[in-house]
Write a structure and sequence with these properties.
The protein contains no helices and 6 strands. The chain has a domain of 49 residues. The protein is globular, with a radius of gyration of 14 Å. A 4-stranded antiparallel beta sheet has the order 2-5-4-3, with no helix packed on it. It has a two-stranded antiparallel ribbon with strand order 1-6.
Amino acid sequence: MFQPRILFRGDEFLITIKLLYIKARNIDINAMLQKAWIRDITLIPEPGLIAFDLDPDIGLDAVLICKAIIADSIRPRYR
């Protein structure tokens, strides 16, 4: 789940996404076992594809090349 960066005080939301038809990946699975927050997500257009670049706060980088990205749900986040 991705928690959007809050630029001002207000409502917070949890957004669940689906990455469809993953063609390639660059992920260190062992590092993903650590607890982390997502700092940034970058979407980079590729010819006919999308690069999904995930940058968590623990310093590793995860990149997935996929055909489509769908926002599956958007829900309010309560603390």
